[in-house]
Structure formats: C-alpha cells, structure tokens
Amino acid sequence: MDGSSRRDSLVRRRSWCCSFAVPPSSPDSISAVHHSKPIRRTKTDPVSKPISNSVPNSPQSAKSGLGLVGRIDPRRILSPGRVSPIDSDPTVDSVQEMGADLSAAADSAPPAVRSQSFRAPSERFRSQPESSSGSGRNVFDVRLNLRGKKGGFLVLELNSGVLCANSEVFAGLMDDCRKGALSRGSSGSKICRIEVPEVENLAMFRETIELMFEDDITKRLLRIGVYRAIDVLEVSAGIMFSKGVLSCLKYLEAVPWTEEEEEKLRDLFTRFKFDDVTTKDILARLYLLDSADSQQNLSRQLVWSITSSTDANARNELKMLVKGLLCKSSVYEKDHPDLNKEDIYAICQSCLDSLVSLFEETSGTVSPKRLVKDAGKPLIERISRQVDNINWLLDILIDRQMAEEFVDMWANQGDLLRLHENASPMVRYELSRVSAILFIAMGTRKLHCRTESRSGLLLAWFGPMLLDFGWLQRCRKGLSMKALEEAMGQALLTLPLKQQYVLFMEWFRDFSKHGTESPNLSKAFQIWWRRSFLRGSETNAIESR
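^ BTB/POZ domain-containing protein, sequence as received from the core. Prediction below:
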C-alpha cells in the first residue's frame, strides 16, 4: 500500500514538472536567485575600456550644465531604447561585467529605494533586434551613463541620429566620440558611451530625453503639469534641445501658474538667457516694464479710488486688500520703492477738506458750492466714511513710519476744533476717533515725533477727547477703550511736567464730574504725582538751574 502511494506521488510530481518549461516562481526559487553571488570580473578580463565623453554639470552648480534636484534608484534603468544593458554583440565577459554591476548596485542600495527597471512608455521606444547593417531609430548606438549629484545612476541606450538631431550639446559630444574612436583605431565599436556627471534630477533628465522621441510634446506636457514642465524646460535649455524649449515655453505661456510655480519660473529666467522673441509673452506675465514708476502710480490710483468709493462693503474689502499689499510686512513687497509720501498726504488733505465741509454742513454755514456731491446720503454716514478713510491712511503712514507730519497736520485743524464745539455729540465724536489712533500710536511707541508736535496734539485734542469718551465707548467701531486709556496716560507722561500738570488737572476735574464717561488715567496720574512731588527737591534744583 505504501509502495503504491509512493509510486503515485512520483508520477504526479513528474507530470507537474513536465507541464512547465521552467519551475514556477516560488518563495524558495526567488530567494535562491536573489542571494546568488554576482560574478566579478578579475584584472585579467579582456574587456576593453569604453569610449566615454563628459557633458557639463548641472546648470545650478558652478560648473553649469544639466539636471535638476532629485534622486533615482541607483540601479541601471534603460530608456527609451533597450531594456537590457547588454551591447549589440555581447561577449561573455561583457555579460559578466553587466551582471556584476547590476548585482553590486542592487545589494548596496537600501531596500526602500530599489525599483523595477524602467520600461519605455510606448512600442516605439522598445528595443528590437539589431542587425549589423541596421539603421534608423531601431539602432541604439549611444549609451548615456547619468550619475546623480546626490547618488544614484541611470543608463539610457539611445539612437545617435535622434539624439544629435535634437540636442546640440550631444551632437558635439557624439562627434568627439567618433573622432576619438577613429584615432584609437576602434572604428568597429558600435556603442558610444557618454558620461554625464552630477545630474541633479535623474527623472527629469530621462523625461526630457524621452520627449525627443515624442511626436506631440505638448500632449506629454499636459500630462506632467506645470511644475515638472519647468524642470523639463531647464534640462532642455541645458542640453540645447530647441524643440523641447519651444514646446515648454508655449505650454507654460498658455496656462495659469501658482505662486510657487511663478517663483520657480522667475528663478529659471534669471539663470538662463532665452531668445527674446520666444519668451516675450512669458516675460510680459512675469515683469512689468517701468515697474518703479508704474507701481507708484498704481498705488496712488488704488488709494484714491478707495477713499472716493461710496459702497461701504466694497470699500472695506478693498481697504484690507490694499493695506495688506502696501504694508511693510507684506509678503508681496520685493524690490518696489516706498510709497510716495506726498501723494498720500495729498489724499489725506483732501479727506480733511471734505470733513471740514461736512461739519460746516451740520452747522448750516457751508456755501452751496462746497456741498459734497453725494449729499443724498445721511450726513452722519458721510462723516463716518471720511473718518474711516483718514484712519485707514493713517494706519498705512504709521506702518511706513511716515506719520510724523500728520501729527502737526491734525494739531493745526483749527476749523475742525471750532466746529467740534458746536456740533452734536453724536457727530463730533467721529473726530476723536482720529485723535484716538494718534494717541495709541504714541503711547505704544509706534509713532515718534518731536516734543512740540506731541504738545500741540495733546493741548489741542485732549479736551475734545474727554468730551467724546462716553460716545466712543458706546460706538467703538473696533476701538479698544482699554488700550486707548493706557496710551493716553503714556502719551501725557512724555510731555514736560508743567504741561502734564495742566492736562492731568483737567482730566481730574472731568473724571470727578462724569466718572466712567471719562477715561480712567489713575495709573498715569500716580506716576505724574510721584515724579512731581515726591522728588520735588530734585525737580526744583533742575528748574532753578
């Protein structure tokens, strides 16, 4: 019984083996192949040294040449010619050499970066049997050995006719290679080997070479996208692949860019010089002619348009947009000149003149010729709009550290001070909103001005601020009352002690009458008291001298 079973098992096993030409893949057979030791060539191997040439290095390096940033699997990958790294007429020794190189590279590479050999994307790129008299695209008589700048290497077997027809750099190298072969008497060699060292992006180099075999390069660029198309443009420019350069420029000009892609393209144009006729459309999107003068004129037009806008929602949206573009901390500020201060102050003066006319309209003293053109809207709304415009301009001036002159301009508004006394509280408090911005800027050390300017501002507008503080609390419009109280006290303490005495006593009387309707400057008052009286002997000695 046991003998019969053993015979049946042998029959079944023999039949299983005969049904395949080779044993099927199994974990055991894969492991055995993977761990087989590579055949290494000894010093006596009769393999002649290849004829090699070098091309310039990456254009981003000091040596200038080919490539971009990247890292490819350090195994030999073939594209778009042969899949096998064996020559047209291989010898036993050359096969051994190739096997040793591939095995050593695979063993030395970390497991995470090992990958399958590259296969040509279309039938046109796959290798076909060569004959000794073969010609055309099916003859792969050039081997490019690409070495990455950060490690890894790539092998491409190509047709010399296609390569020379598309790249002036490789055409020159092929000519040198053939001349070198003839001088050595090795005219029978069918493979010309060219070394390309320090390629920054092996994948992009391979992608660019593949484009030489494409009938429709634009369709290929549509698949890879803008970011990689810029990489292809850089490699094409480095190897003088004119058709690739023209196709990339045409594609890039026709599509939108992200900010990252725009910066990458701008950087590429600073390192490469292209034909002006070819790149004029892209350069027109990247650079503005007469940018210094145009930017100043544009800024003035934007600011003027915003201050004259009558739509509240659109005006507020545009204010945030333009302020973000013009402020010192803006990410968009590059090499543009500063804003023209005279233009901004001219717009400020126009807003102040409009504000005077509006307050005269409230008192009935304005002449018909000076009536504001949008008189159909409520007077309170028109006054608030002009104050918003002034505060917005003031924020820009403070950010640019150009607001010192505005302090004097506001302190000398005698007409507005006179009209403030007779205006309704629900209207006049709008003027104190401008004073509040200046007080906060001075108290928080954002605005630096002379003693005369600070004294003139506080002596003129401190009293109106005390009168309007209650209305400011009820109609804050984004104003921080705590910050205003703290800043007012700090601003007062920057004045000479005699002027502090006058203004602090004025506040003391007002606070004793109106309480919370008046700002709380108790902390600053204590500091003034200590400086004035607890150190009085020192103060008297200084004043007597």
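Strands lie at 52-54, 142-148, 153-158, 192-199.
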